Amino acid sequence: MKYTRCHTSLGPIYVAWTEKGIACLSLEEEGDEAFRASCRECTGQTPVRDDSRRAELEAVLEGWLAGEPYDGPVDLSFLSPFEQAVLAVCRAIPRGEVRTYADLAAAVGRPGAARAVGNAMRRNPVPLLVPCHRVVRRDGTIGQYSMGGPEMKRRLLQLEGAL
After folding, report:
1. Which residues pair with residue 14 across a beta bridge?
2. How far apart are CA 17 and CA 23, in angstroms?
3. Domain membership flag for residue 70
4. Structural domain span for residue 90
5. Per-residue model confidence as pLDDT tens digits over 154-163
6. Cβ–Cβ under 8 Å, residues 15 and 24
């Protein structure tokens, strides 16, 4: 696994990838070591710095922020089959729209598993590219967000016109 630090309009975003695709993404403000530790905790692998793809990945992130979808590969192989299924459904939520945790639970054939869906969202290693900020509570409140808290979730939903 390799990683780089990208400069974006949201601020610095760290991106790690494997041969299968992008595996970790974070607005980590604590620096390289904190991001590496976060990747290790999530994937079991410690990434090595490699800036050879920085320009390409910055273009992907800025394109996404400007409204371009990212259909490229992501590596979720280290997650459970349930988490992978939930994140696949989440990835299909169109920009500018939201779904509830219960909606995703039903979509993966596990109605009543909204809490487990929330846990899968919390473990999402590639927020933005798998847009878990588009998943809200049944009562319409936005809930938590693993990449910057509820304030960042609100900001992203406003950027997309979902709020």
Report:
1. 5, 26
2. 5
3. no
4. 81-159
5. 999 999 998 8
6. yes
- Based on the residue annotation, tell me whether 132 is a catalytic residue of this protein: yes
Single out the catalytic residue among 39, 42, 90, 132.
132
Rounded Cα gap, residues 57 and 15, in angstroms: 8
71 within domain boundaries: no
Q: Which residues contact 157 (CB under 8 A, 6 or more apart)?
A: 98, 133, 134, 142, 163
Structure tokens, 53: 């793809």
Residue 68, C-beta contacts closer than 8 angstroms, at least 6 positions apart? none
Segment (H or E) for 66: none
DSSP state of 74: B
Look at the pTM and tell me if it is higher than 0.85. Answer: yes
- The enclosing H or E element of 98 equals none
With b for 16 or more beta-carbon neighbours within 10 A and e for fewer, the 66-87 pattern comes to: eeeebeeebbbeebeebbebbb
